Amino acid sequence: MDLTYRVLNVFTDGKDPFTGNGVAVFEDGSTLSTEQMQMLAAQVNIETVFILPKGGDQEATVRFFSPEKETGFAGSASLATAAVLRDLRGWAGDVQLIEERDHNSGTENMRERQDRREGRDASDPRDPDTVTVFQRDDLWVLDAHEPVAQPLKASPQILSSLVGLNSDVLGGDVMTVNKGLGGIVLPVRSVEDVRRTRLDARMLHSYAMLLNIEPRVYVWADSDTEPDTVVARMFYGPRGGVLEVAATGTGGVNLGAWLAAHGERGIQRRVIQGRVEGRRSLLDLRIDEQGEVFVGGRVAEVARGAFTM
């Protein structure tokens, strides 16, 4: 059995295809078990999506994996998948992605932990999670609807020590998004402070467990030299460690939620990410007058191949 896949870079910088965040999209994962999907994601060692045959016109059912676990929706992966579906199926217009998850895999995700803590029965049938992706000129855009950011109650010393900085560098409210599902959004005063950020894995995971949030931290500052531009870094904690990603749509959504919580409406920002680790990425962030957040970027296909199972 041959499994065809494509590798795409999302949020690329201009016309350079080897910038942005890499995503592998398998064109048909209907014959695969959860274990096989996870092994393939570990093999390619980047965010991985499996398209399933379910879905109607302009919609498709999908499953999302990191090299470590099944993750649920991710911004880069959603944009890459929409680009592949458009090409495979000749669609035009919006693409609706419907998430399917193996709830018997034994891995409890953040949403399920939140349900358990709030007394909800995770086995109850619920509407499937969906996202909408569309094209605006040469950008692929994710409609994040209206994410909600809330202040994080902790001392400035603790929050700044989380990112290896002094408390006087905090540039505003530190917030969490969607009850911690999006992690922490931490503004600092300058781009140099963004560059100097260092995360300690033990502290990140201890803090995430204490607050019942995902181990993710998005650090950002307004550019010192370019108007309407943000410089950012995004960290997350797989397997008890800490990694930095070159580009992340989730981070852009989190920033949009932070800005919306501070009254920003009808705005557009360019977000530069990945510069510190040598793989620059560009994201387009927009918030409409109603507070709806849109994150977009360029998508470049860089490879195709097949696995033999």
Chart the SSEs and their pairings.
Blueprint: E1 2-10, E2 21-26, H1 34-44, E3 47-52, E4 59-65, H2 75-89, E5 95-99, H3 110-117, E6 130-136, E7 139-143, E8 149-151, H4 156-162, E9 175-177, E10 184-187, H5 191-196, H6 201-211, E11 216-222, E12 229-236, E13 243-245, H7 249-261, E14 267-273, E15 281-287, E16 293-297, E17 299-308
Parallel strand pairs: 2-3, 4-5, 10-11, 12-14
Antiparallel strand pairs: 1-2, 1-17, 3-4, 5-6, 6-7, 7-16, 8-9, 9-10, 11-12, 12-13, 14-15, 15-16
Question: Notable features of this structure?
Answer:
33% strand; 17-stranded mixed beta sheet; 7 helices; 309 residues; globular; 23% helix
Describe this structure in words.
With 309 residues, the protein is of the alpha+beta class. It is 23% helix and 33% strand. The chain has 7 helices and 17 strands. The chain has helices at 34-44, 75-89, 110-117, 156-162, 191-196, 201-211, 249-261; strands spanning 2-10, 21-26, 47-52, 59-65, 95-99, 130-136, 139-143, 149-151, 175-177, 184-187, 216-222, 229-236, 243-245, 267-273, 281-287, 293-297, 299-308. The chain has a 17-stranded mixed β-sheet that branches. A hairpin with a 2-residue loop joins strand 6 and strand 7. The chain is globular and about 55 Å long. The chain starts with a strand and ends with a strand. The model is unreliable at 106-111 and 113-127 (pLDDT under 50).
